[in-house]
Design brief:
It is a single chain. This protein is mainly α. About 45% of the residues lie in helices and about 0% in strands.
């Protein structure tokens, strides 16, 4: 085995993840399954970090974000929805940093700013508009 993986079979890996979600970190990606991933993300704060990227579905991502909002950083941008973003920023406003521009709705931004006005530095749409205005004005 390489890369610090500890489990040589699916059965061994599944048993370990059921005992403690953190063991997903030591499961080879080819042994991960949707069922194993769901068990891990329901049980642990940072579990999504260790999930094989093609197994991160919208459903798994939403579970992970509900368990621990900072998991949003590991969700592929194309899977993030405004609803998922709102869940995250209501818990911790700074997670706005990981919300793509297309999900930064007024409600999401207001929730992040309510948490801490300094989160305004993570608003991406203002930069998008600033860039568009600069191009229009010849800047």
């Amino acid at each position: 085995m390489s890369e610090g993986y500890r489990f040589n079979s699916y059965e061994e890996a599944m048993k370990a993840v059921k005992e403690y979600w953190w063991n997903l970190k030591f499961v080879r990606p080819d042994l991960q399954t949707p069922e194993m991933v769901e068990i891990a993300v329901k049980g642990g704060l940072w579990a999504l970090e260790f999930v094989r990227k093609d197994l991160i579905t919208p459903e798994i991502a939403e579970i992970a974000v509900k368990v621990y909002s900072a998991n949003l950083r590991y969700v592929p941008k194309h899977i993030i929805t405004p609803g998922m973003a709102l869940i995250a920023v209501k818990d911790w406003g700074w997670t706005l940093e990981f919300v793509p521009a297309h999900c930064q709705t007024q409600e999401v931004i207001e929730a992040a700013l309510k948490s801490d006005p300094d989160n305004s530095k993570f608003i991406k749409i203002k930069e998008m508009f600033k860039n568009a205005l600069g191009e229009t004005l010849g800047e």
